[in-house]
């Protein structure tokens, strides 16, 4: 540092600002941030008063503002333009923070689902559970073929993407009470994605609170009939009736395991005591 004039050489100022010397030289060359002065040998020197300026410019660059936009602002800068520019960038940052919060929550949900599956392991015993309400983005349709399922899955995913509804949960399906009783387990009535209760949408359907007979099916989706048969037998033998549509949702899929034989699907059937 030049003690008589309180100036920093390029390397000293770069170290102070935690940036590279080359960055300062580049910014000078393109006219974005110039040194306080250059000596007779063309060496650059910076004043301490420039510290806040370069830190702000680096922050704007780091949040995505282009160097061209920064230079354009500097060419026409006024106090009001500074407020307008910083306000605009602040709004962008707030939006990005919200997006990152959403991503963080979705990843946390996915971790919780996987941990639940790990805890279950190979346990496919039937159990009865009192379940709370859950929010679902649900798309009902008449299933006549696998093409219908694929088309409606695409429509549901498209809707969620367009409305920025992300949850980290896998696609789920329902089977109507009628189809369960008649053992048409592959006749899907709707597809859904479970979402956090804070999500607002006209497509929100509430999975009812109540008593459910549950099983964790291990294996491909095509073999879920085995678990449905076990559930129906259990429900009948223990004095219950099916009281609504079933809900299936995936804990382990191709993202988690290599083989369809290792898929893990939770099946819930609402029940009530037989009269």
Q: What does this 3D model show about the protein?
A:
The protein is built from eight helices and twelve strands. With 275 residues, the chain is an alpha+beta fold. It folds into two domains: 7-77, Multidrug-efflux Transporter Regulator, Chain: A, Domain 2 (Orthogonal Bundle); 111-273, Multidrug-efflux Transporter 1 Regulator Bmrr, Chain A (Alpha-Beta Barrel), CATH 3.20.80.10. Strands 4, 5, 6, 7, 8, 9, 10, 11 and 12 form a nine-stranded antiparallel beta sheet that branches. Strands 1-3-2 form a three-stranded antiparallel beta sheet.
Indicate the topology.
Elements: E1 7-9, H1 10-17, H2 21-29, E2 37-38, E3 44-47, H3 51-62, H4 67-75, H5 79-120, E4 127-131, E5 134-140, H6 146-162, E6 171-175, H7 177-181, E7 188-195, E8 204-207, E9 210-218, H8 224-237, E10 240-242, E11 246-252, E12 264-273
Antiparallel strand pairs: 1-3, 2-3, 4-9, 5-7, 5-8, 6-7, 6-11, 9-12, 10-12, 11-12
Helix pairs in contact: 1-2
């Amino acid at each position: 540092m030049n003690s008589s004039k309180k100036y920093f050489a390029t390397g000293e100022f770069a170290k102070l600002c935690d940036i590279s010397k080359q960055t300062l030289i580049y910014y000078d060359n393109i006219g974005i941030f110039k040194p306080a002065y250059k000596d007779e040998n063309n060496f650059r020197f910076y004043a301490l008063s420039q510290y806040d300026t370069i830190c702000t410019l680096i922050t704007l660059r780091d949040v995505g503002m282009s160097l061209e936009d920064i230079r354009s602002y500097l060419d026409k800068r006024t106090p009001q333009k500074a407020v307008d520019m910083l306000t605009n960038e602040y709004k962008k940052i707030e939006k990005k923070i919200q997006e990152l919060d959403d991503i963080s929550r979705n990843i946390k949900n996915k971790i919780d689902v996987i941990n639940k599956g790990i805890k279950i392991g190979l346990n496919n015993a039937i159990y009865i559970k009192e379940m709370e309400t859950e929010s679902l983005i649900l798309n009902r349709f008449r299933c006549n073929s696998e093409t219908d399922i694929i088309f409606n899955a695409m429509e549901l995913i498209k809707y969620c993407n367009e409305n920025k509804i992300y949850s980290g949960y896998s696609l789920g399906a329902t089977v109507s009470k009628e189809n369960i009783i008649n053992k048409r387990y592959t006749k899907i009535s709707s597809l859904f994605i479970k979402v956090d209760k804070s999500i607002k949408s006209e497509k929100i359907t509430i999975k009812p609170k109540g008593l459910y007979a549950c099983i964790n099916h291990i294996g491909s989706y095509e073999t879920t009939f085995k678990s449905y048969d076990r559930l129906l037998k259990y429900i009948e033998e223990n004095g219950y009736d099916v009281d609504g549509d079933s809900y299936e949702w995936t804990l382990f899929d191709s993202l988690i395991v290599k083989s369809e034989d290792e898929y893990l699907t939770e099946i819930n059937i609402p029940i009530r005591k037989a009269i």
